[in-house]
Design brief:
By secondary structure, the protein is of the alpha+beta class. It contains seven helices and eight strands, in the order αααααββββαβββαβ. A three-stranded antiparallel β-sheet has the order 4-3-5. Strands 7-6-8 form a three-stranded antiparallel β-sheet. About 11% of the residues have low confidence.
Length: 236
């Protein structure tokens, strides 16, 4: 090599070595999905797909309201899985046999196997709607949401999820205030205004009612809170 080219070759070799040394710093490896992420994300996607498929079969197809209801139901289910993940349960973290051998039913994972807990759901309308719906002891989470929402929608508008639980008992409570057009509150709906609807849970019916009343009072301390529904799975 001619002497005048040696500095150029040395500089080129030095540049190549610097590029090779810096290459790992520029490589990006996406974070690996954990088993819990896989279970939760797949369950949410399949839940929404199954829900929208059922809505499409209804007269008129998928309406914006039906799509929103599907989103609410599936988000509630995903939130429940996230709570299970925080508690380290095998179904949520993907470490247990139930998660590894999860069967497929109607195009979505059968998250409610025979040994899975029974679900309770409370729906309620937005003030001043008195609407509410409650289901306890349902093995199918999506079915529980559908039935509770159906009950609530039959009583009034603005229904949304207030509580989802796996406790044996559930309760719904309303907070009411005197109507400006009434002298006193009576049993007649025109004498009061519903300011809130709250859900509660517990291992006994009494505990569930107390929980619902406490939640009601926290929403509106000036309201009169009353239990409007309570039940336990298996007639407890």
């Amino acid at each position: 090599m001619p002497p005048f080219l040696r500095p150029v070759a040395a500089a080129a070799l030095h540049l190549v070595l610097l590029c090779l040394a810096a290459q790992p710093a520029f490589s990006t490896t996406p974070p690996a999905r954990t088993p819990a992420d896989t279970v939760q994300q797949d369950a949410a996607a399949m839940c929404r797909a199954a829900c929208l498929t059922g809505a499409a079969a209804a007269p008129g197809g998928v309406s914006p309201k039906a799509a929103q209801a599907c989103t609410i139901r599936c988000q509630a289910g995903q939130a429940h899985l996230a709570r299970q993940n925080a508690q380290g349960t095998p179904e949520a973290t993907g470490r247990g046999t139930a998660a590894r051998s999860m069967p497929m039913v109607a195009g979505m994972p059968a998250l409610q196997a025979a040994r899975s807990p029974a679900f309770g759901v409370v729906y309620g309308g937005r003030s001043p709607s008195p609407a509410f719906g409650m289901v306890v002891g349902e093995r199918d989470r999506l079915a529980a949401h559908r039935e509770a929402e159906r009950q609530c929608s039959a009583r009034g508008p603005g229904c949304r999820v207030l509580a989802e639980f796996t406790a044996a008992c559930g309760a719904a409570a309303q907070g009411i205030r005197r109507s400006p057009w009434a002298l006193v509150i009576t049993a007649r709906p025109e004498t009061y205004v519903v300011t809130s609807v709250a859900g509660g849970q517990g291992s006994t019916q009494m505990q569930a009612e107390a929980d619902a009343l406490a939640e009601c009072r926290s929403r509106d301390p000036m309201a009169i809170c009353r239990v409007v529904a309570s039940a336990c799975s298996g007639g407890e």
